[in-house]
């Protein structure tokens, strides 16, 4: 088996966040709650956000759910990266992440941890695992409570 | 190997399957996803090609030579399937797109006779294709769904079934072999009990017809469905078996050409069986190729295929049990590999099934990871997804060895990182 390939996919950072996630749970209070799932495999993500009073900045992100090493570590890394960001910045980062998974862009130095997900882009069937949580965050930020669907899916 | 030693079935048939002789990620392909779809032997590919190269024409219409050849070959495939499952009449075999469509046909055409409070018994282990159509029937008619759960051995709970069934039961729709648990349902016994209460029985035989002799008359089921692509045939074709009188009593499913006798502007009369249920131009080439697949399977012998798969099952479980981190679902086979299908759904300690599938793919091994279209069963087993290796008669013990070695490496890879 080509372990080099696998080490590229399962980089130490990814495995550490999978094994010891820092952002599992629910924010307190919950200002936004969004579920995401990948219907083809059954992976789920329950994302909660705490915003500032004006609703312009993300104070905390937590996640629950079940999924593979890629999906879970992606959620944990994203939560770390989002704390303190404005909603506008967050939406830009989502776009940048999706571009990176298509091999189009990287994150700047201060967010370079997110770049470990580049290895996933070499495994096309696993890209959805990495993007599920970002897709869910986008829905959480863009949709008002009333119009929030029970689930968003990353099938598109 | 001594000269007197007989070749295994796999050694004999592997040259028939061109797709098996390739490298994936630099390793020889080990295809262990046969419960999802089987590979196709040359005779099936040839049948498809021959039809389009020589005989392609629409069926049951033209008077010309090609149309007559196409019709003969298409109807000939029906005869082969009728014989293969021992139907009493060729009119009892209806070609469908797949098993899902066959179940939907029954759910729509016969399901509309159900009334508020009528009961349908299913099992928790059903494939979504034998669940959703009945949910839709229940919503439409007010019929009530009842579910038989697996017992402690993760087998069909016959005692619970006997307690659930009553004179209110109109239908028992049940799989023959579980694509996740590998359990082989006692369908003849289930059917006899259902008939005692006047209920009809539909058997989802997708995971049995490709692997063992199936006799609809011995089972005495009212309907049986199977998919062509899981039994060495092409995608896009499957079949419904139904008892003649029952099929006759059912209204058509889809309307269109082919299924009619006489058409007026405001009404029509319908064709006799089986054409009443085959609206529109069918998958002619695919049906003919499925006939070739049935010939191929019959020439090997379904009893021989089943016996060889039992040997593989015994070896697979013997090897899987060497890896203590695994939790394997469904009943254990006997030492001879009897009592379950040649497949194993499992979880592997720290390794999520998707991660496992990726790691195995790097070793050239194709397995399935996910819920295998049995989400309610996975929920019942309190597991989100499982990995599944499913075998067919062209798989070898050597391939099982490759799979086991890669599996062990994957488990160790994750264990080494987590310590």
Automatic annotation (TrEMBL), chain A:
Basic residues compositional bias, start-end: 20-36
Region (Disordered) residue spans: 20-39
Gene Ontology BP annotations: iron-sulfur cluster assembly
Similarity comment: family membership: Belongs to the NifU family.
Superkingdom of this protein's organism: Bacteria
Database matches in InterPro entries: NIF_FeS_clus_asmbl_NifU_N (IPR002871)
A molecular-function term among this protein's GO annotations: iron-sulfur cluster binding
Domain NIF system FeS cluster assembly NifU N-terminal, first and last residues per copy: 10-129
Lineage per the UniProt record: Bacteria, Bacillati, Cyanobacteriota, Cyanophyceae, Leptolyngbyales
Protein name: Iron-sulfur cluster assembly scaffold protein for SUF system, SufE2
């Amino acid at each position: 088996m080509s372990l080099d390939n696998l080490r590229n996919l399962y980089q130490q950072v990814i495995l550490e966040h999978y094994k010891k996630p820092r952002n599992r749970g629910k924010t307190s209070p919950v200002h936004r709650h969004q579920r995401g799932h990948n219907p083809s495999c059954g992976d789920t993500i329950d994302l909660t956000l705490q915003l500032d009073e004006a609703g312009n900045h993300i104070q905390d992100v937590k996640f629950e759910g079940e999924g593979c090493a890629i999906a879970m570590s992606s959620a944990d890394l994203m939560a770390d990266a989002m704390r303190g960001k404005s909603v506008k910045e967050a939406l830009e980062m989502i776009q940048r992440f999706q571009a990176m998974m298509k091999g189009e862009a990287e994150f700047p130095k201060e967010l370079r941890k997110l770049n470990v997900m580049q290895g996933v882009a070499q495994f096309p069937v696993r890209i959805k695992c990495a993007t599920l949580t970002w897709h869910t965050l986008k829905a959480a930020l863009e949709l008002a409570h009333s119009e929030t669907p029970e689930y968003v899916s990353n099938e598109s | 190997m001594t000269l007197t030693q007989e070749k295994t079935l796999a050694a004999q048939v592997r040259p028939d399957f061109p797709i098996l002789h390739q490298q994936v990620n630099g390793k020889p392909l080990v295809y262990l996803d046969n419960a999802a779809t089987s590979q196709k032997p040359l005779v099936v590919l040839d049948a498809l090609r021959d039809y389009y190269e020589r005989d392609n024409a629409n069926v049951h219409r033209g008077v010309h030579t090609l149309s007559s050849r196409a019709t003969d070959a298409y109807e000939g495939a029906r005869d082969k399937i009728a014989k293969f499952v021992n139907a009493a009449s060729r009119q009892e075999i209806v070609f469908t797109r797949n098993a899902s469509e066959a179940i939907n046909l029954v759910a729509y055409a016969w399901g509309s006779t159900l009334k508020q409070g009528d009961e349908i018994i299913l099992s928790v282990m059903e494939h979504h294709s034998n669940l959703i159509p009945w949910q839709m029937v229940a919503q439409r008619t007010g019929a009530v769904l009842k579910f038989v759960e697996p017992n402690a051995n993760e087998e069909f709970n016959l005692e619970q079934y006997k307690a659930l069934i009553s004179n209110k039961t109109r239908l028992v729709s049940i799989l023959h072999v579980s694509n996740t648990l590998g359990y082989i349902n006692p369908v003849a016994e289930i059917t006899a009990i259902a008939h005692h209460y006047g209920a009809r029985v539909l058997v989802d035989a997708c995971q049995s017809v490709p692997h063992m002799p199936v006799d609809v008359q011995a089972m005495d089921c009212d309907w049986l469905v199977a998919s062509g692509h899981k039994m060495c045939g092409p995608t896009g074709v499957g079949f419904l078996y139904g008892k003649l009188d029952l099929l006759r009593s059912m209204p058509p499913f889809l309307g269109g050409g082919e299924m009619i006798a006489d058409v007026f502007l405001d009404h029509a009369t319908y064709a006799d069986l089986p054409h009443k249920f085959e609206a529109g131009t069918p998958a002619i080439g695919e049906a003919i190729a499925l006939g070739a697949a049935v010939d191929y399977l019959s020439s090997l012998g379904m009893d021989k295929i089943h016996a060889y798969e039992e040997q593989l099952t015994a070896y697979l479980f013997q090897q899987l049990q060497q890896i203590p981190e695994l939790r394997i679902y469904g009943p254990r086979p006997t030492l001879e590999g009897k009592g379950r299908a040649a497949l194993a759904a499992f979880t592997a300690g720290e390794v999520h099934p998707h991660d496992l599938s990726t790691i195995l793919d790097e070793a050239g091994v194709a397995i399935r990871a996910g819920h295998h279209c049995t989400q309610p069963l996975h929920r019942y087993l309190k597991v989100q997804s499982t990995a599944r290796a499913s075998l067919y008669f062209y798989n070898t013990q050597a391939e099982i060895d490759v799979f086991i070695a890669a599996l062990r490496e994957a488990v160790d890879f994750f264990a080494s990182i987590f310590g």
